[in-house]
Every structure is written in C-alpha cells, then in structure tokens.
Amino acid sequence: MTEKPKPPFSALIYGEIVYWGTLAGCLISLIGTFITFVFPKKNVLDPAYVLSSLWTGKTAKEIWVGALGAEPMGHWYLSNLSCGDALQMFGLAIGVFTIIPACFGASLALFKEKQTVYAILAFIAGMITTLSMLGLFAIK
Amino acid sequence: MRSLFRQSPELFILSGLVIITYAAIALFWNVPGTEVLTPTKMWFIIVLSFLFSTFIAIIAVIAGIGGGVLFTPVMLAFTSIDTLLIRATGLVVAMFSGLISTGPFMRKGLADVKIVFFCSVPIVVGAMAGAFAAIYLANVMGATGDAIVRLALGLVLVFIAMMFILGGSKTEYPQPKKIDSFSKKMRLYSAYWEESLGKVVEFHATRGLLGGFLFFAVGFTGGFFGLGGGWAVVPVLNLLMAVPLKVAAASSGVLLAMGNAAAIWPYITKGSLLPLLAVPWMLGQVVGGILGAIILVKIKAGFVRKVLIVILFLTSFKLIARGLEGLFGINIPVF
Asked: Which residue of chain A comes nearest to B121, CA vs CA?
C-alpha cells in the first residue's frame, strides 16, 4: 500500500469537535485574562487576594470563604460571565465540555460505519462525562 | 517556519494572541501589589507558568503521557501552593495537551478511534473505582499500605522501562506472532502514513481482552494515587497489544484527555480549580500540544521510545523514594 490511508469519518468528527472547541475555549479564557488584570474590580474574586493567597499556601476553601464568606455552589462562573475570572473559567470549562458532543458525534458516525460495539463504547464514554458534569457522581 | 504556518495557522494565531494579551496586561496592569507579591512578580508568575506549561506539553505529547507527571512533582517541590489546588490544576495540565493534539492526530490517522474507545470505558470506570477504593483504604490501611503500593508501582515502572530498553527497536513497529480471536472480532486493526519512513504502516492489535483488564487496572491505580494513567497506557498498548509506538503515544494522549474530562468536573463545581492559577497552564498546554503533535508526526519512533524510557525512570525513582519514605520514615530529596 503506497497511498496515504484516509482516517474514518468518526475519527474526524471526534478530533475536529475537540480541537476547535478547545481553541474557542482558549480565546474566551484569553479575553477573561485581559479583563481580570486590566479591570480588577470586574472579578468574582479579587485577583491580588487570590494570587497572594495561592502563594502563601491557602486552600481553595479558605480563599473562597475569605473572599465571599462561602464556597461556590455548582457552575459558579455561568451566572457571572461579565467578570474576568468567571470568563476564564468558562473558557476552560468549554474546553473540557467538548469531549461530550465529540463522544456522541463519534458514536453516531461509528453507527453509520457499522462499528456498533465502538459506537456503544463512545456513547457510554459520553454518558459518564455528562453525568460527571451534571454532578450526579463525584470523583474525589 | 512557512511550512509550519501552512500546517497549523491557528498555532500562530493563538500564540500571537497570547503574546499580545500578556503584553497588553503588562502595559495596562491595574492590580495592586500586596505584602506577599508585587505587581511585577504577579505578572512573571503568570507568564512563566505559560512558558513552562508549553515546554511540558511538547514533551508530554511526544511521549504520550499526561503533563501532570511532570507538573505535579515540580509544583509540590518548588511552591507552597495547596496540594488540592495543585492536583486540580494537574488535571488541566494532564488533559489539555491531549485535547488539542486530538485534532491533528485524528486527521493524520496517528490516533486510532477504535483503540481510543476500546480503552476509554475500562480506564474511566477503573479511575472511579480507584478513587472510591482510595477513600476506603485510607481509613483501613493508612499510610503504610499507601507506601507499599507506591514502592511496588515504582518497581513495575522500572520493569516496563527495562522492557523498552531490552526490546530495542522491535517495540517501535511490533509484529505480533498471533492475533487472538477476541481482537479479530473487535476488528482492532488499522493503518497510518508514517512520515519518517515515507510509507504506510499497517497493524493489528492483539491480546485485546487482557489489554481491557489492564486498562481497568491502569485507571484504578491512576484514580487511587491521583497519578493519571499516562505512564502506563503507552506500555500496555505497545508492549502488550503490539500497537506501533507512535500510534500508542498519540492514542494515549487522546485517551488521557477523555479520561480526565470525567474527573475534572467535580473540582470545577466545588471551586477547587481557580482560573488565575489554571488558565496560564491551560494556554501553555494548548500551544505546546499543537507543537508536540506536529513534532510527533515527523520524528522517528526511536526518539519517542528514548523519551518514554527517561520519563518512566524518573517517575519510578519518585515513586520508589516516596514508598521508602512512607515505610521507613526517612526523607529522600528526589525532585
């Protein structure tokens, strides 16, 4: 065989969704980074306080409680998208989230390619990640 | 440089945007200093995190390991940042180079979609079982049990590294003597264009069932110790299942991203992942991940093997040292 083999459509679907989703997440996080340091009041947590606390070894709980009086609940960044740090977190979460549509997209493509076992495995992988995102089970 | 731009214009655009953003932040910085950090030190921490992360990502993608294997020990050794925050950020480091390299690897056929999904479920289920077992065993066996397993794991890694050395170049494009019926039924075969040889390499994975069990074990130990499974995915795929080394490294990166995606959400929703710490590392992983993917396609498989051997030895030394420390109550100054 001398011709370059073409990757299956399922591989392309999975790869492209993850790739472009991750890049989009990075761009959102970059905008968030700019807002965080140029407009420090537009943040959920004061950036000077967070960086100093990190450097002195404070725990995440101590940092949140010290700034807001309580730990965040669930996807805290979604209700604060005008804030720099929340936007940074949103970008990161978008990158992680891309796995879910990629798994389901690849699962559909694998069904069409008659790779039923792999389609089921891709669906299960997508479901596990979805349940984890929804907080239905926690890995600590 | 021009051919690199043609291959991945988004790499240049993203790198340019990162540079512009960090330069703009330096020019328009408005965050006041504190008793602990001056504004200049804050800026340097962010930029150095990005640069160090880029460097780690290139090595991680070439070797098919998660960057967490390098990130976590360095951060624990050289900073006073809380261990839970380091572990949570370590997951970002472990997964984002794999996430971004998924696209190029799938396009080139270097990562195999069937192998990825074949391994994904046992690894994720194993990781969850390991995490729950860790909580249970911490109450029953305490620190001694933890030290014994760390020591055993370190010795296993030395054994795997020796296999790569003794196996020599045979491990780069392994030829299985026999394909078992399970692997045949699962159609665990594929082909990819090997740029360093200028020809198509066809392969058929074997020992699929045993591989599945071992991936569960890899996920279990990864979840149990919070190590990530990068150190073991490539050896299982290559040495046991006879998958070519570069395909094993590429598929491992894709797999690690998928596995860690399930593990990272609880950290996000509990606020244990702080964007000020995590985002520069994420950006570095993405830029370095694209670069690493481009390099892996072009380099010879023998180079991947050498990088992997070095990393396996370094990780094993750390595990053995931590195991001996836990058993004998001594302090061994290993990175």
From this structure: A125
